[in-house]
Every structure is written in C-alpha cells, then in structure tokens.
What we know:
The chain is mainly beta. The protein has four helices and 40 strands. The strands form seven sheets. It has a 22-stranded antiparallel β-barrel. It has a five-stranded mixed beta sheet with strand order 1-9-10-5-6. A three-stranded antiparallel beta sheet has the order 2-3-4, with no helix packed on it.
Amino acid sequence: MFIRIMLLAAMALALLSSAPAWAQNQAGKGQTDNEENAENSGTEVALPTVEVRAAVRREELQSTSATVLENKDVVGRVYRQPLDMILMSPGVSITQYGESGIAPEFQIRGSKAGHGGAEVTMYLDGIPLHDNGHANAYLDTGIIIPIEIETVEIIKGPSSVYYGQRAGGGALPMQTIKGGNFTRLNLRYGSYNEMDAQGLLARETDQLSQVYAFQAFHSDGYRDHSEWDKKNFSGRWTYRFNDKFSTSLNLRAYQAQWNSAGYIPKRLNLPPTAAVDDGSGEYNGGKRARYDGRLWANYFINDKSQLTFYLYGSTLEHTRWQMAAYPANATGPGTGTGGNGTEQYNTHESWGAGLSYNYNGDWAGRPATVTLGTTYSFEQESPRQTWQLPWGSGHRRGNKTSDTNFSVTNPAFLGEVTYQVLDPLNLRLGGRYDILGGKFRNNLAGTPEESAPRKTFFSPKAGFVWSTPVDWLSVYGNFGRGFSMPGLSNATFYEGGIYDLTTRDQYELGYRAAPLDWLNLEMTYFWAFTKNDVTYDEQTNSQAPIGETTRQGLEVALNIYPARDWTLKANYSYIDAKQKVNGTAAVDNSGRRITAVPRHISNAELSYEPEEGLGGRVSFRWEADSLLRDPPPTLRDGTPNLSGGYQQTPYKAQDKGTLDMQLSYRFNANYKVVLDVLNVLDKEYYGSQGAPAYGTGDFTYSIQPPRTFYVGLEMNWE
C-alpha cells in the first residue's frame, strides 16, 4: 500500500515543483464572513473569520481534510436520497438499500453509519438526526430539503472538538440558509412517476429575517410495491434586538410513508422489479413523523467575543413493516408458508442545551481564537416494540417479541484554542470531556429498570497549518481521539458486561496547493487505530465485535478551471481497512480485511455553467475491491475453517461504476430548464448485497434503478 502512496505523492510533488512560484493561490483569498459562519455543535458563530481555502471557513477545519459544500454545490441535482450529496467528498461511499424510504448506509473512510452503524454523527441546524427506531443510530436524511441547505461539512474522523458521541468516524453537520430577500422554486418530474417540488422563501428587514422552505415528493418506484411519499416544511425567524443581541427560532416538520420491495434470493431468478409480497401488496414499508424545534440566542460582549446559547427538542414516531426475503420453501410471489416478518414501532424524544463563549481576536499582536462550551443532551425511546407478522397476514400483528424503554444522558465540556505562533505557523489545541449514562427497562420480561454504569471519555484534539515559503503551498496535520457508542436498545449496554465504547485515534498529514490560477490540488494521508470495533459479520448476519482495527489510506483531489464557466473536479481514495487483534477463540482474523469497505473510490465531473445559454455536466463514479467475506482458511488449531461442511472462502462484492449526465438551458438569472439522466449506461449494479451461503452460491441483493430520466424547471427571483 505504501508503495502506491509514495508513487502518487512523488507524481503530485513533481507536478507541483514544475509550477511557477509566482502563481497566485486562488484558494487563499481572504474574505470575511459574518452571519453565515456556523459552529455546528448547535451554536452559530457570527464572528468574522478569514477564509483560507475556497470551501472552508472555520479555523478548526483548516488543519483537517474536511470538505465543505455550499448551496451552489448541492442544489440543481437529482438525489436518490438527500444523503447522496456527500458523495462529492473523497473517501465517502453509500450503500443504497433500494427500499424507497429506508435510510441508506454510508461510510467515511470505512467507518459506517446511517443504517445501523454508529460511527458518524449528523446534525441539521444543530439538532442531531439519529434515532434508534429501525436500527442503532439510524439516520433518516429524508428530513433534509436540499434547496435550503447552505453548508454541508464532511468532517472525517474524530478531528473536531464540537462532536462527541457517535463521532468516532466523523461528523456531518448541515446548516440551512439564514436570511436574504429571494424566492426559489425547483420542480422536477421523472421516470416512475417521480415528482419533486422544493421551494424557498426568504425575506428580511433590518431587524427580522424569515426563511421558509418546503418539499413535496412522490415516486411510484421502479420495483413493484415501492411507492414513496414525503412532505417537509421548515421555518426560521431571526430577530436582531440591537447590534449586540439577536435570537432565532427554527421549526421543522417531516412526514413520510412508503412501501418497499424487499430482498429476493438470487436463486429464484425473478425480474429485477419483483417484490417480496404476501399477497396484500403492502407487507413491506413504513411511516415516520418527526417534529423539531430550536431556540438560539447570541450576545456580543464586544467586537471580538460573544456568548451563545441554544435549546432544542425533537419528537419522532416510527413504524417499519419488514419481510426481508421469501420463506425458505417459497418459489415465487405470494407462495410459501411459515415465514414471518416483523413490525417495529418506537417513539424517540430528545432535547439538548448548550452555552459557549467564543473569542476571535489577537494575543501579542498575533491572531487567536478561543472556544469554551458546555452541552447537555438527553434522548429516550419509550417504547421500542416489535411484533411478528405471520406470512399472508398483511399488517396484522402476531406475537410481541420485544418491548423496551431506554434513555441516554450526555453532559459534556469542550474547549479549543488556535494561535498564530509564527507568521507561517498556526497551531490548534483542544479537547472535550463527555459523561455518559442511561436507563433501560425490558417491559416484556417485567424486569426492574436498570441504570448503566457511568462512562467518561476525554477526547484530545490538535492540529497545525504551515504556510510554506512557496506562497501557493500549505501543509497541515492533526490528531484526534473520539468514540462511538454501542447499540442502545440492547440490555447489554446498560448491564456493564459489553458496555465498551468504540474508541479511535486518527492522524492526518496533507497539503493544499494552487500552483496555477486554474489549478487547485489537495492530498491527505490518514491513519486510524480503533479499539472495541464493531462491524457487520456476514457469517452471523449481525453486528459483531471484531477487536482492534486499523484504517489507513490516501485521498487526492484536484479542481481545474480550463476556461470561463468550465470546471473539472476529480478525486481518488485508497482505503486499507484491516483487523489487527481479534479475541475470538476459534478463529484468528488478525490481518484480514474489514468487510464491505471499498479499497478504491473515484469521482470525476466536468461541468459547463454559463450565465445564459446551454450548459451541462457529466459525472462518473467508481467503487472497487470490496470484500463481503474474508475468512481465514484455517482455525487457530490449524483445522480447516468450515461452515455447514463448506470451506469458507473470500467473496468479492460487485464493483460499481455509474455515469450521470445533465443538459441545461439558462434563459437568464431567473429561469433554467434541465434534463437529467442517471445511470446513463443502464448498468445493473447492486446496493445491499449479502455474501452467499457457503457452497450454495445463493444470496439476496437489491438491484439499483436502471437508466432514469428527469426534466426540471428551476426558478430564482431576487
């Protein structure tokens, strides 16, 4: 692996050394940014900061490999799920389950989250999006209205001081537009009767800013019984009492309902559009209703320091009906007996508060920033219940299989300082201290309520940015320690037996360069070391502890601006994720690869966006070399590693390559029509894919949509 890294580094440095030293660094143009700057731990920071690269404003992120996307980067695109917008960042991959409203799983450098993973946290306007209804730390991004997104921070690993629980692998804070005077409306219609209407209305005076957004979405789905409807609304009111004090209220509502096609064994050789169905036509699917609110207040002590307070609350009701596959003796739709599905039902409530002090000024004539803060969060699921659904019964509940209540509390304290110790060197030092506790009750068993043993965790953070003597080249590096929490709906979390946090240390070293006014480059090396790691075990078909793991790799990105209105963006990631120490008695997995982590991820996009006239873009994405099973050939005692009498062998997932295109015509600043084609080559590729049973060649999979077309109208009135 390191040979590949060194070769790529040598090639990049050779290119840099050939560039003229007088070239201007377009990514280093300073500019101030006041109210649009946000600290996504829940506080909004309005102090001026200096932008040292095109997409990153916060000083904390300048010493990391974080990607920051802005509104212009994420609007005007078709997303299978809103989460797809993060695919533009290196080292990110998404597993689409192809099940309408079911949240996908995603990875940042092999750290998993979204659909059952708990290693990456996500915030929308300072409110955490996770719940535990369908799976641990479930992240339903259907609540996101893309047209209102102002920034998306893709923070890799535990490099940020603002995030604690569930942030060992990274954080995805999103902020919505805070003010302005404009009206925007995007309308799209596409294949399979897909309709998406999004609107944004912003009005402001000297004292009051109002922003309203909505989304109405429907799709019949490309598979049978895959309808999906969702409705979103958000409102934001910011009032400035005077030059020193302002406050803001955010409200959000989200409702969704869907049918899902389920997963079909490959041995049945059914059409890709076929669906698991017990004859009722509504066996799979679900519904969700969520309502969020946040109050934020900011007081300027002087022109260099401020106090910020926030308070948020969220409530969710979730139902999921599921039949994962046909019963073992089924031969086709509507046949077979003896199979059972499940219904999951839960309510999730959470609230949190925080207070922070921010300083942005100078010490001894050199730039310095200080952040001190404390936060408190509480979440509970009361109840979380599941029932059997007998095959052929529709949504009629059978035996109740679980009924639990649980809660988690998390007070935390954080602090961070950045200081320009020398003209070319800026240092960052910080840390946070988290305290975790909770309660659990198994209502089905009638056991008494149990309290979890209190856990504490200290997360140190450090980083630097060095402006080299070459004015177009800067070097950065950082260290961060973080943690992720185990499954919350299981009693073992509270009993203390397996209540071990997954902890991760990550190191990054990289550089950014703009040797020419039409070229930006960035390269990052990363190393991450994890203890008490948990991943998906294809042999047991469940989440399982795998001991100590390592992740290391390389990310390279470049932006080229060959001519006016033309942009070429490309990036490549190499991820080597392996098990280091495994304590399983029978099998020694040391040195084996972590399953379902692609080694190679590439993105390339060429776009032409004129102020008027014909435009468009072509995007290509490639993911390769992912194993779904990598077992050792022998047990610890040297005997063959067998399962069901079959020799266990590695199983490689399908490589995924997709080509998307958009053709557009802009009449003027107000109107634009677009034609999008996704999966242009009509390649059949898999989203969720399970390794086959040993020796049988049988597995289940979810085939992703074929070539699809969309037409749209984008309107913007300033």
